[in-house]
Amino acid sequence: MGDDRRQRIEDGRATLGIELGSTRIKAVLIDEDHVPLASGDHEWENAFVDGRWTYSLEDVETGLRAAYAALVADVESQYGVRPTTFRALGVSAMMHGYLAFDAAGELLVPFRTWRNTSTGPAAEALSERLGFNIPLRWSVAHLYQAVLDEEPHVAEVARVTTLAGYVHHRLTGQDVLGVGDASGMFPIDPATRDYDLAMLATADELIGAGAGTGAGTHTGIRALFPEVLVAGQDAGALTAEGAAWLDPTGALEPGVPLCPPEGDAGTGMVATNAVAPRTGNVSVGTSIFAMVVLERAMAQAHEELDVVTTPAGDAVAMVHCNNGASEIAAWARVFGRFAEAAGTPLDIDHVYATLLAEAEQADPDAGGLLSYNYLAGEPVTHVEAGRPLLVRGAGSAFTLGNLVRAEVQGAFATLAIGMDVLAEEDVRVDRMTAHGGLFRTPGAPQRLLAAALRVPVALEETAGEGGAWGIAVLAAYLEHAGDTDLTTHLAERVFGGDAVHVADPDEHDVAGFRTYLERFRAGLPLQAAAVAATTSDAATGELDATTDEPETTAGAEPSLQTEKEPTR
């Protein structure tokens, strides 16, 4: 088998996927059966600069090269050959945000990521005029907010894209975007699988000529956005300049075909085989989000829900929460350090397994404890800035199991609030598939998520490979798009059987979580009080009462995190 794999790599018959998550850049190489052959990664973190979350383009370049070099080293270590070309290549990244360039291709302002929540006036005005929920993190909201704030750079904007679109452009010279990622820039028309023309006209009336004259005569914001492609369409090929940018050693040859660049939400759907109607997935990382593929359009817009698309362009309802498993990771580090100080050091997987086993046996409502995982603001619950909190009454059952269960249920609570809105729209879900490092520990996380969402939750073996594997699968699909649609391709050629394990909602867990959720909703005013009571300290980096937390995310994704963020 080793010799066969070596030959496939040497012949350029392997496919490469690269994903830029919020805490890790990961590269995965797969064979013709979509089985991972090798991987490489590079950890990185966002920076809080001038009141905004960002990553520098220098860090993008350094990180991509490091992840690719690590993959090459893994290939050489396992198979004794250095790859020089691939069957296909795909790039994905955290969705949304704002990367604005002038006509010369120069970045006009630092990359504004999905985590920034400073676009409230723009998002509200756009949502009202379009009759469509425009989230704070969407690219059009960032663009319009820059216009409203009269930022000097807006007149020079010639091109706006996402992080995946930027990397793809560097590799191919093509200004294109997969429809799933594009749906985080501007609403997509399900009929055309392109930007909604009527909404574009309305947005142009609202935004006016204040943006996008950098390329010449203003022709509307459509001219600023990338061309939209669906899964399986030709998105260009690796240029000589792109090959040298990714691999400065010169070993990588140009000419590799690329699939449309996608967002991490789309690759999560692929990695969990959740692109058909009535299926969905939940991704847990620094952020947490759920995706449900819709059978029909929703009756009305909801500010708790984004409507995005699968990589094939089918409508998806998305509940995106800015805050995910970072607070759970923080507690795991505390208990890990305690074990070390007590003379019995444990690896992080063992720490998680121990803590989550306690949570599984805890009181269904966490014994009266209440936890908020809000390191940042949370649009779903209208919290502008967040503070992690653990609250209990004198009569609460303060045990280790209840503490951990409160933290896990607190991480799922905001997601459940958004999913309740879907239930009110009579959106049916047969099954959700979970992925992210938290689910590498069997038992409690899957069971508690099923209770929180009140739907069966499945785990697929391949879900642990993350979005880098998902975009590699989309790249491999380039050769099959003429034969079959993406849903059939995934079901018949990529996923060979049923989920490894499906957890059905337990009635006692469901009742306990609903009690917990009532406390969670009632306690939300505590966030504003905690923010108001916290003062800014420039010397320590503490946040003030009006901004998200400028704390490092180092360690937010523990070593058991199987990439991604997700982020997104």
Number of E strands? 22
Spatial shape: globular
Structural class: alpha/beta
The Rg value, from CA coordinates, equals 23 Å
Note the gap between the termini. 37 Å
Give the overall pLDDT as a whole number: 89
Report the sheet with the most strands, covering strand number, pairing sense and barrel closure: 7 strands, mixed
Give me the side-by-side strand order of the main sheet.
Answer: 16-17-15-14-20-21-22
Give the DSSP E fraction (strand runs of 2 or more residues).
15-25%
Count of individual helical segments: 17
> What share of the residues lie within helices?
25-40%
Low-confidence stretches: 537-568
Characterization of the model:
With about 575 residues, the chain is an alpha/beta fold. The protein has helices at about 1-10, 55-80, 120-130, 140-150, 165-170, 180, 195-205, 240-245, 265-270, 325-340, 350-360, 400-425, 445-455, 465-475, 485-495, 505-520, 525-530, and strands spanning about 15-20, 25-30, 35-45, 45-50, 50-55, 90-95, 100, 160, 175-180, 190, 195, 225-230, 260-265, 280-285, 290-295, 305-310, 315-320, 370, 390, 430-435, 455-460, 500-505. Strands 16-17-15-14-20-21-22 form a seven-stranded mixed β-sheet, with helices on both faces. The chain is globular and about 65 Å long.
